[in-house]
Specification:
alpha/beta; 2 domains; 5-stranded parallel β-sheet; binds norvaline
Length: 317
């Protein structure tokens, strides 16, 4: 596939991408998924260093296996080196890894660590989740939405209506930024006090207006409106755990649980979740396991193809 957009240098935050770059990545992910053999030498002789400050199942495995499918080599760096910036400076970490690796994938606590890595590395850096963004997840989710709602023409993606219900977090930030960039109507429903920052809301609103889509933020679950897809994520993200808050969180978020009755009310045909799911909290077991409506494992698989598309774009010739 011939690229017509600006070359990608890193993959750090959704709003650092253009609409054309996102659509090309989605199309490439689907192309690699359909024809993996055509891409099995894209990373031949190349190595990717993967830093994980936080636990991971899908991200770790999908990067590792995806890199193998592209003919490359992945190295997992767990928490043995402690928090980034503690044992040695983030800049030194980035410069050292750049001596050996052709790309750096990092899951970190703070976005500033991702930015520091990208600033000082001489190789591309991929954000594998931080406190503010989870762009690999949002890309995989739009690949999934494209497969379901825009099979014949990727442009149909902009007709999808997507709602996220729950905690305003890294996953919702990335989803709403990507939605706004590609012109997808997005409704964000969070309990009062659990929404994103005003800076993030303003950024999304500006992008949505520029791309002709509607972005709505509400704390009233009855304002959910009509949707094609409903998305939810944990009410407490990694790094935010505070046992003393658990009771309050369960109480405040209870009306925001995603279940069959909410799906019916919104007329939504699919439910999405980045996982891990906290069953009977943000989503009912019955809905999570509903094979007609739940696309959670399609999303999980698409993590791998989306990331293959990112690495192919960053490192392929
Ligand atoms: N918001 C969640 C996503 C996990 C994939 C977290 O950061 O823990």
């Amino acid at each position: 596939m011939k690229s017509t957009s600006q070359p990608l240098e890193n993959f750090l935050a959704d709003d650092q991408l253009s609409k054309a770059q996102i659509l090309e990545l989605i199309a490439l992910a689907i192309e690699i998924k359909n024809n993996p053999a055509d891409y099995n030498q894209v990373l031949a002789g190349k190595s990717v260093a993967m830093i994980f400050e936080k636990p991971s199942l899908r991200t770790h495995v999908s990067f590792d296996m995806g890199i193998a499918k592209l003919g490359g080599h992945a190295l997992y760096l767990g928490q043995q080196n402690g928090k980034l910036g503690e044992r040695e400076r983030v800049s030194d970490y980035a410069k050292n890894l750049s001596c050996y690796a052709d790309a750096i994938v990092a899951r970190v606590f703070e976005n500033s660590a991702i930015e520091g890595l990208a600033e000082h590395a001489s190789v591309p850096v991929v954000n594998a989740l931080c406190d503010l963004y989870h762009p690999c997840q949002s890309l995989a989710d739009f690949v999934t939405l494209a497969e379901i709602f825009a099979k014949d023409d990727l442009q149909d993606l902009s007709k999808v209506k997507l709602a996220y219900i729950g905690d305003g977090n890294n996953v919702s930030n990335s989803l709403m930024l990507m939605a706004a960039l590609i012109g997808v109507d997005f409704t964000l429903v969070c309990p009062d006090g659990y929404g994103p920052s005003q800076v993030m809301l303003d950024k999304v609103q500006t992008l949505a207006q520029a791309n002709g889509s509607v972005f709505k933020f509400t704390t009233d679950i009855n304002n959910i409106g009509q949707q094609d897809a409903i998305y939810t994520d944990t009410w407490v993200s990694m790094g935010d755990e505070d046992a003393s808050m658990k009771e309050t969180i369960l109480k405040v978020f209870a009306p925001y649980q995603v279940n069959h009755s909410l799906m019916d009310k919104a007329g939504a045909s699919i439910v999405m979740h980045c996982q891990p799911a906290h069953l009977e909290e943000e989503i009912t077991t019955a809905l999570f396991d509903d094979e007609e409506k739940s696309v959670v494992f399609q999303e999980a698989e698409n993590r791998m193809w989306a990331q293959c598309a990112v690495l192919t774009t960053l490192l392929g010739n």
